[in-house]
Write a structure and sequence with these properties.
By secondary structure, the chain is of the alpha/beta class. The chain contains 14 helices and twelve strands. The structure holds manganese (II) ion.
């Protein structure tokens, strides 16, 4: 197994083994993480559109029901079509994209397929252990889309306006519109290149920021109402239980960046959203502000992710999980104060 973990390396420099693995394959399965976000979907979709130019047969692995309503437009815009399980099983390469752990790969019969088919793992999650045969992990890259842009260029494929739009949506979302601390000079350069390549920025921004269903809007109301602040204003959290999510007409896939609501309060160092999209499982989204890394906190509960944005899942009720996690979070924030 080869692993390239690049924390300070140039995200424009694609290791030759990444291109070699793609060039050597014929049928290529493109897989993102469960509950795909725009970055995962864009990384998969742009390669799906680009690789036929090299004579490859790419296949999008998107099990039924995995795309949120908000992201459905990307699927339609780019004409993305999911493959069948039989097509997936006949692939000679799996490209895992934006997926920090093997068990988060969004495909049926995952472990058996990974045991049989070589995996190329391209990701920007610093905690990615390198579960592929080949791994290109750039922890400081804003997004996997930023890396995939470099891969598409390195392979000599065209960046069509549709590919540019997908990748722009991926970079835009993971940087919250080039506004988070992961926005580097290279993200802005990639944004510039994608704009020149014909990315439909207006459409992306309208869909991301001004296209909420009434249910998604109502869910934000729930999360605003349930927001609490503790630890002298340095910890903020909110909750949305199963009844509240379904009551607003939403489903688990609709929970995405709503943790930005408790995070938006001045002075907050750590924000957490507890959500029960699936009954009996509480998902936590952790966010750290101003250089605070929440990764260690998420890892205490079996999770992972990035320093500034991490997640975890625990089985239980909202009451039992918050009772377990909030004291640990308060302790974590108190320890920050001592540094
Ligand atoms: Mn990402």
């Amino acid at each position: 197994m080869t692993t390239v973990h690049e924390q300070v390396a140039d995200p424009t420099r694609v290791p030759s083994e990444v291109c070699d693995a793609i060039r050597a394959a014929e049928s290529i399965a493109l897989v993102g993480h469960v509950t795909p976000d725009a970055d995962a979907l864009a990384s998969m979709g742009s390669l799906w559109l680009a690789l036929p130019e090299l004579g490859k047969r790419p296949h999008l692995v998107l099990p039924e029901g995995s795309v949120s309503r908000q992201l459905q437009y990307l699927v339609e815009y780019a004409g993305l079509q999911a493959c069948t399980q039989a097509e997936l099983e006949a692939c000679d390469l799996i490209v895992g994209l934006d997926t920090a752990k093997q068990r988060r790969l969004n495909m049926d019969d995952r472990d058996a397929l990974v045991a049989r088919i070589s995996v190329l793992n391209i990701d920007h999650h610093a905690t990615n252990p390198g579960y592929g045969k080949w791994n290109w992990i750039v922890g400081h890259s804003s997004s996997t889309s930023e890396l995939v842009y470099a891969v598409i260029k390195a392979l000599g494929c065209q960046v069509t306006p549709t590919i540019a739009t997908l990748l722009y949506a991926g970079v835009h979302t993971d940087t919250q519109g080039f506004a988070l601390s992961n926005t580097g000079a290279n993200s802005l350069l990639v944004g510039h290149d994608l704009a020149l390549a014909g990315a439909n920025i207006v459409e992306v921004c309208e869909r991301m920021h001004r296209s909420q269903s009434r249910g998604e809007f109502d869910l934000l109301g729930v999360i605003y109402r349930n927001t609490h602040v503790g630890a002298d204003g340095r910890l903020a959290w909110s909750t949305a239980d199963y009844g509240e999510i379904t009551g607003a007409g939403c489903v688990a896939a609709d929970i995405d960046d709503q943790v930005e609501i408790p995070r938006s309060i001045e002075g907050v160092a750590v924000a957490i959203l507890f959500s029960e999209g699936d009954r009996g499982t509480i998902r936590m989204n952790f966010r750290g502000e101003r250089g605070v890394s929440v990764l260690e906190l998420a890892q205490q509960f079996g999770g992972g992710g990035h320093h500034a944005a991490a997640g975890a899942k625990i089985e239980g009720t909202m009451e039992s999980v918050t009772a377990q996690v909030l004291p640990a979070a308060e302790q974590f924030v108190a320890a920050l104060d001592r540094d």
